[in-house]
TrEMBL record:
Protein name (record): histidine kinase
Keyword check for Phosphoprotein: yes
GO CC terms, sorted: membrane
Domain of life: Bacteria
HAMP domain location: 193-245
InterPro entries: HAMP_dom, HATPase_C_sf, HATPase_dom, His_kinase_dom, HisK_dim/P_dom, HisK_dim/P_sf, Sig_transdc_His_kin-like_C
Molecular function GO labels: phosphorelay sensor kinase activity
Gene3D superfamilies from the UniProt entry: 1.10.287.130, 6.10.340.10, Histidine kinase-like ATPase, C-terminal domain
Domain Histidine kinase: 253-467
A Pfam family that the UniProt record links to this protein: HATPase_c
Presence of the UniProt keyword Ribosomal protein in the record: no
Length: 496
């Protein structure tokens, strides 16, 4: 786990920083403990030295008097078990000591030298004796009435016990720190594992999805950010699976749609090629070939439109047009078909003129044709398709309502998606509504569908008038805002 990746970075970054902080804290605490202990001992020694003026009062006129009083003080010192007291002559020789042993006259006395040159008569020193023992010493100089140095009293304490206690405290602090560090490390490892394990599972799942296994799912362990990521991966897999199925259905549908006219064209071409047929049969065959060729051309054009839509290259050539005129022509195109299929195609013509719009004539006609074609396809013989248009608050709305089979509620949100077909039993490739919706969005309009299963479907096509766009430029979905003064404009969708 720690060879690479997140765990390694955590180990060398977070844990490394914690170790440095831990070391710094231990060093700082050790210094504080040692300073506190040493200062306490020093203040104790200075406090004892402050009693000299009282103890030696009246005996500090001459050197001999001081020497006698100092010997008596050292020999009768009550705290001999806590510290050693020495009487030092003004020349630096040791006169007597509270230990009862012969003093070492060669012993270093930096504190005595410091006290001789100090204004307050104190001297302080920490060091090692000739025996190697670490001690703290405080010297207090005694002066006569004329200010002359009579001698000094030196207080010495062994620091070995204090150092042992300080070491013990430091070791306890280190132990506590190490324990905390171990707990933090174990907690960190558990936390890192709780992240790395799901990430590895997500990675393995993503690899399977990349290889085309859209049925694989990630097991969600916890309801947190990783859980949300698991949900997103699972949703993505489901969406990709659905898209893959729709794509396969689309390919199958397109293949079938292309094969049908091609079969008719090929069959009649072979028939005509044999010769020896009557004029009526010849004309019938040529009509079939032309009609099916036009049908093929329409399907290819629809596929090209879809390709342009996918790559963001669908463009419009906008100009001032009368929307009703294009709607009239589209309805007229389906009149014969509706009559042949025994369906009622009713067009409620508007009595008043509608405001002009900026639109692409061919594209808007394509939208009307796609929607009316769908309405007729899904309407049973004897059913009705009703087309109407009106203007409301600066928008023109075209309503195409059929009495067909309707769209189930679970399919309704997806019918404008690419490749999606709610009814696989009806011809079509599933991209007509997607292209129509894209065209309407390029026109700064919308294509809305309201349907109830078994009751029919209503499609509402909404597009703003020229005046509405001029007054509200923010409504435009194109890179160029249409204006009434422009004769022709070429626009495309804004890129996000």
């Amino acid at each position: 786990m720690f060879k690479k990746g997140i765990a390694r970075r955590w180990l060398f970054n977070s844990l490394g920083v914690m170790i440095l902080l831990f070391t710094a804290c231990i060093a700082a605490l050790s210094f504080v403990v040692q300073s506190y202990a040493y200062n306490g001992i020093q203040m104790t020694l200075i406090g004892r030295s402050d009693e000299l003026p009282t103890v030696l009062s009246g005996s500090m006129k001459t050197v001999s008097e001081f020497n006698a009083a100092a010997r008596s003080y050292t020999e009768n010192f009550p705290d001999k078990d806590l510290m050693e007291v020495m009487a030092v002559s003004r020349s630096g020789s040791i006169l007597s000591t509270s230990s009862g042993f012969a003093p070492d006259q060669n012993q270093s006395k930096p504190d005595f030298e410091s006290a001789l040159h100090s204004e307050n008569g104190y001297g302080y020193w920490i060091g090692k004796l000739a025996s190697g023992e670490k001690v703290m010493a405080v010297s207090r100089v005694a002066r006569g009435a004329n200010g002359a140095v009579l001698g000094a009293v030196r207080y010495i304490v062994s620091m070995e016990r204090a150092d042992r206690q300080i070491t013990y405290v430091v070791l306890v602090l280190i132990g506590i720190g190490v324990l905390i560090l171990v707990l933090v490390t174990l907690s960190g490892i558990y936390f890192v594992r709780s992240i790395i394990t799901p990430i590895r599972e997500l990675n393995a799942t993503a690899e399977k999805i990349a290889k085309g296994d859209f049925d694989v799912r990630v097991k969600k362990e916890k309801d947190d950010e990783l859980g949300a990521l698991c949900d997103s991966i699972n949703d993505m897999a489901a969406e990709l699976g659905t898209a893959e199925k729709m794509k396969n259905d689309f390919i199958s549908s397109v293949s079938h749609e292309l094969r049908t006219p091609l079969t008719a064209i090929k069959g009649w071409a072979e028939t005509l090629q044999t010769g020896g047929i009557g004029r009526e049969t010849y004309d019938k065959g040529m009509n079939v070939i032309v009609r099916e060729a036009e049908r093929l051309s329409g399907m290819v054009e629809e596929l090209l439109d879809f390709s342009r839509m996918q790559s963001g290259r669908m463009r419009l050539i906008l100009k001032r047009i009368d929307l009703l005129a294009e709607l009239d022509e589209a309805v007229y195109m389906f009149t014969d078909r509706a009559r042949t299929e025994h369906k009622n195609l009713i067009y409620d013509e508007e009595d008043t003129m509608l405001s002009p719009i900026l639109g692409d004539v061919n594209r808007l006609r394509q939208v009307f044709i796609n929607v009316i074609d769908n309405a007729l396809k899904y309407t049973n013989p004897g059913g009705t398709v009703r087309v109407s248009a009106y203007e409301d608050d600066g928008f023109i709305r075209v309503i195409i309502k059929d009495s067909g089979c309707g769209i189930p509620a679970e399919h309704l949100p997806n019918v404008k998606k690419k490749f999606y077909k709610a009814n696989q039993n009806v011809r079509g490739n599933g991209i007509g509504l997607a292209v129509a919706n894209e065209i309407m969005e390029l026109h700064s309009g919308s294509l809305d569908i309201d349907s109830e299963e078994g009751m029919g479907t209503t499609v509402i096509i909404t597009i703003p008038t020229m005046k509405k766009l001029e007054m509200n430029p923010e409504l435009s979905n194109t890179t160029q805002i249409p204006t009434a003064t422009a004769q022709v404009q070429v626009v495309e969708r804004k890129q996000d």
